[in-house]
Structures are given as structure tokens and as C-alpha cells.
Amino acid sequence: MGLLFFGGVMNLVWIAAITLFVLLEKVVPYGAGGGRWAGIGMILAGTLVFASAWSSGA
User: Fold this and answer.
1) Alpha helices in 11-58 (DSSP H)
2) Using an 8 Å Cβ cutoff, are 7 and 15 in contact?
3) Average pLDDT of span 26-47
4) Nearest to 3 by CA among 38, 11, 55, 54
5) Phi, psi of 32 (to 5 degrees)
6) Rounded to an integer, what distance in angstroms lies between the CA atom of residue 26 and that of residue 53?
7) Which of 56, 14, 49, 53 has the alpha carbon at shortest distance from 6?
């Protein structure tokens, strides 16, 4: 809920993306397994963003 609130305050496109992601996770037949893999992918993506910001000195 916090992510939806802060994302919605900042950008409506992020809310649409999060909503689409949750909808796909609920509708596709491999939702639970797909959700786990998507979570792992998001953790890796966040780690890469953090590492690139750290290395650039931002």
C-alpha cells in the first residue's frame, strides 16, 4: 500500500504499471512462480541501479 501511495503521488504511470503487474500475477496460470521470479528480477534490477548510483557518486 505504501508503494501505491508514494508512486501515485509521484506518477500515475507507475500506478498503472504496478496495477498491470499485479493483474498479470493474478491471471496467468503460473502466477505464484512467476511472481517469485519477477520479485527476484526486481531485486536484481534495484541492486544494479543502486550499484550504478553508488559508483557514479550520486
Assistant:
1) 12-27, 31-56
2) yes
3) 82
4) 11
5) -65, -45
6) 33
7) 14
Is the backbone of residue 11 left (phi > 0), alpha (psi -120 to 50) or beta? beta
Position with higher pLDDT, 9 vs 52: 52
21-31 pLDDT, tens digit per residue, is 888 888 888 76
Range of the domain at 42: 2-56
How far from 17 is each of 52, 53, 54, 55, 58, CA to CA, in Å?
Answer: 23, 23, 26, 28, 26
- The number of distinct structural domains making up the chain is 1
Q: Band of the pLDDT at 8, cuts 50, 70, 90?
A: low
